[in-house]
Amino acid sequence: MSSIKHHVTGMEYWRSLEQMSGTPEVAQLLEQEFAGYDADTIATTSRRGFMKLMGAAMALAGITLTGCRRWPKEELAPYSSNPRGITPGLPEQYATAWELGGVTTGLLVTAYDGRPIKIEGNPTHPTSRTAKDKDGNYVYGSADAFAQASLLEMYDPNRSRDGVVDRRKVADHTKDLSPQKHTTWEAFAAAIKPVLADLKPKKGEGLVILSEANSSPSVAYQRKVLMSAYPRAQWVEWEPISHDNEREASNKVFGRVQRTVYMLDRAEVVVCLDADLLGKHPNHTRYANDWAQMRRSADTEKRMSRMHVAESTLSITGSVADVRIGVDPSRIYALAYAIAARLAPPKFAGQTPPGDHLVKREAKDVLMDEERKFVDDAVADLLEANKIGNEGPVQGEVVNRRGGGFVAIGHTASAEAIALVYEINGALRAVGNSLRYEEDTQEPLRSTYPDQQKIPAKDLTRMYAYENAKASQAVKDGAVFQSEIPTLSHLPAMTALTAAMDDNGIDTLLIIGGNPVYDTPADLNFAAALSKVPNTIHLSLYDNETSRACKWHLPRAHYLESWGDGVAWDGTVTLQQPIILPLFGGKSTIEVMAIINGDEKVTDGQHIVRRTYDEPAPETEEWVAFEKKFRAGLEAGFFPKQGPGVVVDASYTFGKFAAPEAFNPDASTYTLRFEQDSRVYDGRFANNGWLQETPDPLSKLMWENALLISVRDARALDLEQGHMVELTLPDGAKFTAPACIMPGQPLGVLGLSLGYGRTASGPIGDGLGFNSYAIRTTQNPWYVSGVKATKTGESYDLATSAEHHMLSPLSMAGEEYRIGKKGKNGKIIHEATLAEYKENPDDLGGKVRKVGLQLFQETDKNVKIDPILGRRSFTDLHAWGMTIDLTACVGCNACALACQAENNIPVVGKEQCLRHREMNWIRIDRYFRFEETNGGVEDPNPEVVFQPMTCQHCENAPCEQVCPVAATLHDSEGLNTMVYNRCIGTRYCSNNCPYKVRRFNYFDFHSQDPRSNSKWLKKPFLNLPDLEQMDPEKYNMIKRMVFNPEVTVRMRGVMEKCTYCVQRIHLAVIAKRGQGGDVVDGDIITACQQACPTQAIIFGNLNDPESQVSKLQRSARAFDVLHEELNTRPRTRYLAKLRNPVEA
Amino acid sequence: MAESITPSSTRFVFPRWANYLLPVIVIGVVGGAFYAPVLFAFGASPKTMAIGYAPKQPVPYSHATHAGKLGLDCRYCHTTVEKTAFAALPPTQTCMNCHTNIKRTIPNVNHRALTEDELSQLSPALREIAKKPTLTDDDLAKLPPEDAQVLRLVVPNPNLEPIRHSWTSGEPMHWVKVHDLPDYVYFNHSAHVNHGVGCIECHGRIDRMEVVRQEKPLSMGWCLECHRDPGSHLRPKEVAVTNMDWNRDQMSKAQVSQLPAGIRDNFDVTEGDFVKMSPEKSNDLSAKLLKDYGIRDVAYMQSCYTCHR
């Protein structure tokens, strides 16, 4: 790829830079159907060798008598006594909740015969609901990729499963793993009792609980109880990805800690400063749903919201924005300042003249002009949009109407920048109009201690206010930890704690969750400090890096196995109920806290949670009322929120803010930006194969992280994809990682995600990628400037799916036909601006094609009857079809994960991914488009289109025409069926599929270790496939529990692909028709549609002209991919992408 | 010849005896060509492989007694058959619903000598009789009914021990699956039962089986026979889905008389003690049921995804 050069063909959309520059490798990929298939290894097999192989195969077939025996005996084990309300064989759904980084989200979990098999969003919870039915009730919800994949985590056989681990007698915990002692919870409780008894007279001095961020009211209450017994004990929270700066800024501006809840379903204009609202924000599911509503209104109201994004990496939000610039992370404050200066010039009069600081760089520099233009456009739009907001009353209430605009800022920005944005939103009068605030209290809901003593209102137990890490002597006294103002800052608190540990000031440390040994800033050297603490206890799902450095490891119950509660981003109190008993005997946070608190009466999770909500004495009248309310809460999954939340005074002050520094970057150095990873979050999901193999939405990297670098910077360093780069940080630290050349990456900014390079995550996650925590420091948690980069000369195989399964741009009609000439829509993607759409809506889509399947109508005499398949007609009751809205799709991967969980799709491992063998049925094609005028391929600001591509269920399917055994053919409702038991694995169908959506089981991937490094995965040759699946050694019994029983687990040697979730269709049809009715629109939703936060995917019956999908397929934006050229007649139609750029 | 034969130029020559191999190979190949298809056609057919499969169950539960003699409806135990894909086996509790009351009244239980403890519970007269080394049903039949009842109450049925164990311990029974379809077939009981396909169509005369065995081949060809011509296999679901005696071609007058009038009238031909439907009536009924139950057309019924997914 030394040949990154300007393309010569004039085509528009590109999956990768290599494709754009037309390298021979890519040309070969397009010609060759099966990449990684090494023709030479077959060709060099001699005739003699071939005969030997075939002879052996024949002989083995004879020996084992594959067909001539009865399959293994199966047993049926009914309940001894049926639990009430359960019908064996019918799936049940339970509302529950999960917490990530201290923010809880509502979920709906499907369980089959007691096994959770699918996680979806709670359809009524305000942070996860997505779609309404005709009556206006929310009927389904979306869960993001992490939440969905947490199912696999529960069944992970590498979780801690041998009970409590006692390492007190192990000399060096980190190295010596052998003499671990597995013991029981009772033994732990007995051992911890004297330790706590010793602490009691000292009022708990030296006792520290180090917890991951926790929003649970139950934990908050237990914390209060602990603190009342041990007043000098300390409670510290640590999250490597925290919202500290937002909290600090809020405290500074409002005098209290509150969260911003944006209302994207109202805002006409959204300006994001490094805020990935639609991708990495804790509330992104709801935000994406709201945002999509304001985009789809282009069809109904002929207007769309507009999104301006300035960001320091290419995020999901940036990729769907209408205006986007890439900037250095240090420029975010400058941009906020410039916006503030435009909005309130008098306030800034005494300071730097408005916007003047932006001019300090040479005027000819493109970047600076770009920033100025961004601010001009954003402010003009904001003022225009907020005219509406200025007309009516906004004081003290949330107005339910469309309009307004706000500025959002990311959690990685400095507290000062965030504070400035709070004031900007005040000046815009956006508060109460297009955003609101919610108190972020973490206060217990219960007002009394167990002995009925009242809990004091002022929370003196908070210990986040430690702002000066130098005062370590005071830390030892324990006083500084307690402050009247709870400024929630994880980093200073952690710094102070480490200092205290280092000074031997801490006696007992209980670590709840998290993995501080791995993910604390490198300069704290937490592991060394930890070894000085005599009693260390770690509660964790995995026996991970931190557990191995502690004296005790306590196995934690997964959230699907335990009771709990939490608070959602918008303040909704959400309940978590178990779906299954703990598989490996773990305990939850609240149960462990009950042990620590010596709570002997209330020990089990359910009762701890009930107590939190003031459960009265049983069998009283109040108790009956409580029970009713509590059960309603359990059923809904949450307690409905009262009131509109906190609406602060909308007046604004604009205190004194420092003028931003001039930006004079040294062209020879770079800014290194750390970011949350889209697959492993902060590293905690490292052992989750589903997530590891889900490509990053933009870089399409799988199984590891890499150094994201812009095209121009890569060329300056003479880098190609996968070349190793050595970074030298200002403090002298060195770090080596492979380069991943990323269009859209801002110039001079290197991106590196957190969470890789784990050493004790389990066999799936260990040793993958590069550990960026090693160079993350307390001074620079989010970005480091002045980093030097040099090419080492080595290179590395990066598995990216950017070029996997590409739709060929070549066609009979020439190269540009499919992908589009400059300025014209091709056959793969259609897009337009809102203005163009309003002017000429019919130009967008393809011709409105009657879906109705006349092609093989029996009456049509001109149609040849297929000699093999006979006469085919599609005149059945239902004609299934789908639409995918490119305007709404944000590429978030939720659909891909939903499909993986629903359809038992295996994980294949990096080795196989490098051979293009990943099995995901939904591939989200990410296309770039560069503006020639803007520097072409070196444009740091490409346009992006996400196109989820899955089986199109062509009525005239190319795959069916080439299958020699009729293993793929149509059913009467228009589904392109794939019959696994008939498939012999010729792969002709895949070769002939123009959409490249068929996936082949090269191995029995479910029984393989995806991390096996052998060239050809080790394959037991003599074992029969079905016996192999029964073998607990190969098919771990725990791993099998995750399978959806409604879907066949495919074996080696068969083709598979999207089925439109035929199992869901059948279940709904059988249930409805068994009662004498028929399915109506909305009865059947595919797994991807269910998971999609923006409702970009709609499925339904095309024979029903009133169904949502019928209407969309007839809409002006609908078009077929490649149909006009190939006459495939796909049942999936796409809706053209609309953008709403600023008019020139 | 002056030129010696060097190893490198040696050509392999078959020895003379190899000539005799040729006829053997010819016979083998020709014979095999005939033998192999015959072997596969008959040896590996579902009829050979599957019909008559009757594994031993942990408890010799008799469908003949329960469904036949006692006349329990199939759905008393297989409760989920109208709601789910699987006709779930009953929980142990279902057995105990009756067997807590009649646990000792099984007639063939006491084919053994009674223990001292058991004897002590009997009246002196009865004790004398019960002291015989083994008791048979015939012995019991000779006793006055009250005495026989008492004797039965004293002796628990050892065959039911696993059921009692399951009931007291809460552990499930482990029954062996008899009608076991391949995993890639998604048969749905509710889809059949709710549309008027009787149990007997696939399971045979369960009400006459002491030990459940597989009666039908359950092969794909056999399934398709019905899927291609569903009408004649349907029955009015309200009255006949679990009725083992329903037979359009031959049904006793007594049984027909219990059917509701609208359905009874279809049996218009009398043959001795039996009645049957005339072909016209039968066709009319098929057409009516196909329409009433919304049976899909043949194209749908034999689409692959109807059963495989």
Characterization of the model:
The complex is a heterodimer of chains A (1144) and B (309). Chain A has 1144 residues and is an alpha/beta fold. Chain A contains 35 helices and 40 strands. In chain A, strand 25 (723-728) and strand 26 (734-741) form a beta hairpin. The longest helix of chain A is centred in the first third of the chain and has 26 residues, at 366-391. Chain A is globular, with a radius of gyration of 30 Å. Chain A starts with 16 loop residues before the first helix and ends in a 5-residue tail after the last strand. With 309 residues, chain B is mostly helical. Chain B is built from 19 helices and four strands. In chain B, helix 5 packs across helix 10. Residues 103-110 of chain B have low confidence and may be disordered. Chains A and B meet through strand 1 and helix 32 of A and helix 10, strand 1 and helix 19 of B.
Main β-sheet of chain B: number of strands, strand sense, barrel status?
3 strands, antiparallel
Unreliable stretches of chain B: 103-110
Share of residues in strands of chain A:
15-25%
Shape of chain A: globular
The stretches of 5 or more residues of chain A where confidence is low (pLDDT under 50) are 1-10, 349-367, 388-400, 457-488, 852-860, 867-871, 1014-1027
Helix coverage percent of residues of chain B? 40-55%
Distance between the amino and carboxyl termini of chain A: 35 Å
Strands in their spatial order, largest beta sheet of chain A: 8-7-19-18-17-9-10
Spatial strand arrangement across the major sheet of chain B: 2-4-3
Alpha carbon gap, first and last residue of chain B: 74 Å
Helical amount of chain A: 25-40%
Q: Quaternary status of these chains?
A: heterodimer
